[in-house]
Amino acid sequence: MIRVERLQKRFGAVQAVDDVGFEARDGAITGLLGPNGAGKTTTLRMLYGVMRPDAGRIQIDDVDAVASPQQAQSRLGVLPDGFGLYPRLTAREHIHYFGELHGISGDRLRERTEELLQLLDMRAIADRRTGGFSHGERTKVAIARALVHGPRNVLLDEPTNGLDVMSTRAVRTIVRRLRESGHCILFSSHVMQEVSALCDAIVVIAGGKVVARGTPDELRRQTGCSNLEDAFVALAGVELVSEE
Amino acid sequence: MAGRSVHQTLIVIRKELRDSLRDRRALFSIAFSIVVGPVLIGFMMNRIADRQREAENVTIPVVGQQHAPAFVEWLRQQAGVTVIEGPSRPEQAVRDGMHDVVVVIADDYAEKFSESRPATIKVVADTSRNSARPSIERVRRLLQRYSAEIGALRLISRGVSPAGVTPLKLEEIEISTAQQRAAQVLSFIPMFIILAAFVGGMSIATDSTAGERERGSLEALLVNPVPRMALVAGKCIAAALIAMTAVVLTTVLCANIPRFLPLQDMGIRFRIGRDEFIGVLAAMLPMCLFSASLQASVATLARSFKEAQSYMGVLVLLPMLPGMISAVSTLGQEPWMYLVPVLGQHVLVMGVLGGRPEALWAFVVAGLIAALSAALLIRTMTTLFKIERIIFGR
Question: Is A53 on the interface with B (CB under 8 A)?
Answer without folding.
Answer: no
